[in-house]
Amino acid sequence: MDRFLYVAMTGARETQLAQSVTANNLANATTTGFRATLANAGHVSMQGPGHANARAYAVQQSQGVDMTPGPLQSTGRDLDVAIDGDGWIAVMGDDGMEAYTRAGDLRVDAMGQLTTGTGRVVMGDNGPIAVPPFESMTIGSDGTISIRGLGQEAAAMAQIGRVKLVNPPLEEMQRGQDGLMRMADGQAAPADADVNLVSGMLEGSNVNVVTSLVEMIQHARNFEIQTKMMSQAEELDQSSSSLLRLS
Asked: Which of 74, 88, 169, 173 is a Cys-bridge partner for 100, taking CB atoms 3.0 to 4.6 Å apart?
């Protein structure tokens, strides 16, 4: 009975983990540039003498990322940019290393640094981008940043840098604990001149709310089935113990 119990227990454990992944996706259904997490689970058959590959334990596998682009939403704001097609915006991660995001809700913080809406420092070709005081600012399709300085004429636009845009192979990237994508080998991806930005637009989350809600219902039902199996295993164990006491 213990084997029956462990099989049900591993199934319930992985279902609970899948439920937490789906809940996190739903919580980020309105997060700019968010890519949904995919919960992957596999099975491992019991091996060894006396085991007939009829039982398999559920085991967690590495979580994947749904790379489907999110919908583009028009904002009309000059510092909002969305990537047209494939590619990523380079930012500084929690570890101080270069990481990548699709969130293009850019702004200038109190220190004069260009950041995303969540405060991630945006990287340029030569490191973080510092923005001097300005009256207006535009970002070109190639990531070039132009400003009109304080007191300058309307036509006096000066280039101060360029947002680093990259497009490495997706199979060479992985998502970190901070939600940002990185190169699996820990190196910085090279800038790609073919990546284009669209100004006045933002990419929304690619989470399908209806699908995620259905998944949550399915996970809840699966968890209920697994817990019922564990209860049944306990009942069978008690019945077996009673029979042994009578013999």
From this structure: 88
Rg, Å, the chain Cα set: 26
What are the tens digits of pLDDT across the range 105-163? Answer: 999 999 999 999 999 999 998 899 999 998 899 999 999 999 988 877 777 788 999 99
Which residues are within 8 A (CB) of 196 and not within 5 positions of it... i.e. 6 or more apart? 83, 84, 85, 87, 141, 142
* Residue 35 sits in the same domain as residue 114: no
171 pLDDT higher than 60: yes
The count of structural domains within the chain is: 2
Burial (0-12, 13-18, 19+ Cβ within 10 Å), 99:
buried
Give the pLDDT band of residue 1 (cuts 50, 70, 90): very low
Domain hosting residue 119, numbered range: 72-203
104 and 127 belong to one structural domain: yes
Shared-domain flag, residues 174 and 241: no
CB 40 within 8 Å of CB 49: no
Residue whose pair of structure tokens reads 């132009």 in the numeric block: 146
Mean pLDDT across 52-76: 76
| Amino acid found at 93 | G
Length of the chain: 247
